Amino acid sequence: MQPVGRRLRHETWMRRALAVAAPTGQPVASAASAEDVPVGAVLYGPDGVEIAAGRNERELRGDPTAHAEILALRRAAAAVGAWRLDGCTLVVTLEPCTMCAGALVLARVSTLVFGAWEPKTGAVGSLWDVVRDRRLNHRPEAYGGVLAEDCAAALRAFFR
Q1: CA-based angle 7:66:86, to the nearest 5?
Q2: Which of 93, 95, 77, 96 is nearest to 85 (CA)?
Q3: CA distances from 113 to 33, 42, 59, 69, 135 (A)
Q4: pLDDT tens digit sequence for 47-83
Q5: Whole-prediction pTM
Q6: Which sequence positions are flagged as catalytic?
Q7: For residues 89 and 120, is the Cβ–Cβ distance under 8 A?
Q8: Where are the beta strands (DSSP E) in 4-59?
């Protein structure tokens, strides 16, 4: 079981990721108007200060790699001036896919916190487990299911 302080911090950070997932100024439930699946990601530094955030922008950019996690990682690397994000925590509302899980491993992110499980494409335990693959040179700590119901509700509302 996680220490209470860690659990509360993860839940607080996940609420921020949920806010990022929502279209600007709109509740998550109305994300259908934005066309992109409402997934939000926030990257926190070792000191717990937010470095960067991203939400899915595949439709907006016409870019298949414009997932929330990828955008947050790119913005964080630019903000800190380095591609290695040692000591950082990535918080995302949906279990990362193989591309995003691979990217956070390559970026040396220390901790991953995610909300809803993704049984169709999840790569942190659902279909694959990229972040725990012993063949890779970096394995972040992973905490899944944080505010899972809130995160899943936002996705269900979008797909209705």
Answers
A1: 45
A2: 77
A3: 27, 10, 25, 11, 22
A4: 999 999 999 999 999 999 999 999 999 999 999 999 9
A5: 0.91
A6: 69
A7: no
A8: 40-44, 50-55
